[in-house]
Amino acid sequence: MSRRPFVRPVSRTRWYFKHPRYLRYMSREVTCVFIGAFTLLLLCAVERLSEGQAAYESFLAAIGGPWSALGLSIVLIFVVHNAISWFNVTPKALPVQIGEGFLPGRFIVAAHYAVWILISLAVLFFAGVL
Amino acid sequence: MNERMVQLDVLRYDPQVDDEPHFQHYEVPCKEEWVVLDALNAIKESIDPTLNYRWSCHMAVCGSCGMMINGEPRLSCHAFLRDFEGVIRVEPLANFPIERDLVTVADDFIDKLKRVKPYLIPGETRSIDEGEYIQTPAQLMKYRHFSMCINCMLCYAACPQYALQPLFLGPAAITLAHRYNLDSRDGGRDERQQVIATNEGVWECSFVGACSEVCPKAVDPAGALQQVKVASTLDWFREHLLPGDTK
Q1: Domain range list for chain B
Q2: What is the third-level CATH fold of A11-82?
């Protein structure tokens, strides 16, 4: 009796619609596009800053309009989604064993949020906001 | 004992006759406490003896009866009929070729499992006279949950990376390699790293996490793979940044 295994086709472009968990994964992955775009914007800001105060202020004026605010708000949403989705899975990558048990994952997640808040406060402090 | 008619659409494929698989509808009287595997057994015993599927222990230990049940990779001995409404769709495990009906070709997984050397390679050779390899409870706990894998391949059926890149070693094989790497009695990590710390090994994983969601034994393959990534990255830094380490 000859074997004739059947290989089911896999869609390379629509596979993530097959299950909500794949869409959830893609929603995390797509955040990198927005974070990449914001990183480019930051690099532009640094470059204009190096060109002097006038150049930097004209840059700030250029991104100060309502459409920019809307765009940056969207970027912020994706950045927060990226941070939360990655923080929530850190216990898998960084388990902390204590004796014969493991530190509950929520403490590892909470530590990440705490560091996030502290660094954000430090940035606001050095920026003169606080 | 309550009994009700349960409807199942089962994917059938006879390589001698069919060009491609097709669904066959069955209605079978089932008891309230039955699982999908019981329904399949009832079909085979009293309705259609030509139906093919794998099973053995009926208690989520042997890992033989993995199937797609309503699109989800499940052990059919662990999927209670009372948890389903309407017609239950039963298909062979996704991402594996279909041998016949619900039986898949597992050769690829078995080959990959062999490549990662999923057995103890003692770090030190001891004679029988020197006694057993001693391990503390804390050392055991480091890898114990990863040792619960029953090779059921549900994680491969859930993994979109494996579906898109069949060369990927996959969740279970890498997890088992990690299990032995974490074992205090083992000294084979360097050999396994040659296989798992590669593009087709752990770096093909993009942390979808589906493997851990479907694992019937709570092994957490996704966790194991991320830990392998962290350890492999530290290896790289040690190799390239620390003086005198030429490994």
Answers
A1: 3-104, 107-241
A2: 3 helical TM bundles of succinate and fumarate reductases (1.20.1300)
What residue ranges do the domains of chain A occupy? 11-82, 88-130
Residues 41-80 of A with CB under 8 A from B: none
Q: Is the minimum CB–CB distance between A98 and chain B shorter than 8 Å?
A: no
Using a 10 angstrom Cβ sphere, with 0-12 exposed, 13-18 middle and 19 or more buried, the burial of residue B203 is: middle
Let me know: does B222 contact B178? Beta carbons within 8 Å. Answer: no
Phi/psi of residue B199, nearest 5 degrees: -60, -40
Determine, for residues A6 and B13 on separate chains, whether the beta-carbon distance falls below 8 Å: yes
Could you name the CATH architecture of B3-104?
Roll (3.10)
Mean pLDDT for B158-162 is 97
- What pLDDT was estimated at residue A64? 86
Tell me yes or no: is domain B107-241 CATH 3.40.50.300: no
- Rounded to 5 degrees, φ, ψ at A3 are -90, 145
Q: How far is B77 from chain A (nearest CA, A)?
A: 23
Global pTM reads: 0.92
In this predicted structure, the answer to whether residue B244 has a pLDDT above a threshold of 80 is no
